[in-house]
# Entry
Amino acid sequence: MAELRRPDNMQRITTPELARAFIDEQIAALRAQIGDRKVLLALSGGVDSSVVAALLIKAVGQQLTCVHVNHGLLRKGEPEQVIEVFRNQMKANLIYIDAVDRFLDKLAGVSDPETKRKIIGNEFIEVFAEEARKLDGVSLLAQGTIWPDILESEGGIKAHHNAGGLPDDLNFELVEPVRILFKDEVRVVGSELGLPDGMVYRQPFPGPGLGVRCVGAITRDRLEAVRESDAILREEFAKNGLAGKVWQYFTIVPDFRTTGIRDGQRSYDWPVVIRAVNTRDAMSATVEDVPFALLQHITDRITHEVAGVNRVLYDLTPKPTGTIEWE
Ligand code: XMP
# Structure
């Protein structure tokens, strides 16, 4: 297929009407490309892959197979939301793979951040490839590539191409229906396709997920502390009007313990670090001025509701000098 480029004069998709026109056009184009063939999609639940899934369900229905890999590093409630939205509501053909033990066993004892990233990325490809080989007659692979991915890979900033990592025996033709869209346009299209706001307007979430927020070698108990504290932070930000305002917010659990007191006894537990930042392009970032009373309330909830945590800190560091993630 010819490499489709965004026309220089293309109107930005900012309204439901423009989104509807794009959707109608893409459905026709997808039907023309796919015909009666079968398509495979790795569905993470992120904005881009979710919008691609919703478009393909409308265009070719059961010819699409979605694979959702739970690597154990997703946020609380995410795998459940993917199943609810795509299998239960949109009636998609969805294969859910519980690969939690597989990933966590591979990551056990590994503390170097880049090695952790590589293990997570490689294992993901392996799990996905195994699943792809089990399916008969699938010749197409859909991807949530968006226009900035193309620009960044051309500019040498980022090695893009999810398909690039797949083994040679899996020789798919690519289907990239949101390839010419910017992120804000993908969101408008997603809303028009009926995806829930929580999925369409969610904050950025890195591929290695909570794995890079459970600093050092990942242990299951500390990973649960990251997941539970993150869920509390998200709930409180949503309740207090910060969810749509702050660009990215999450918690980190370092791999050391500190002394505290619980029920009159000495405790020796982990600290939780809160990070909440604003940025335009993630190259630099400023720290959100979260009201002190809210920080105190979140601290109270995390220290009382999350097992193994006795202390909460707020990261006051802009980027630079700190990166947004801790690893
Ligand atoms: P840093 O930590 O480099 O993060 O200031 C900038 C933005 O990139 C996200 N990030 C990642 N995204 N895979 C991803 O898909 C990664 O390995 C990764 N590392 C960082 C980070 O969440 C922030 O939005």
Observations:
- The chain has a mean pLDDT of 95.
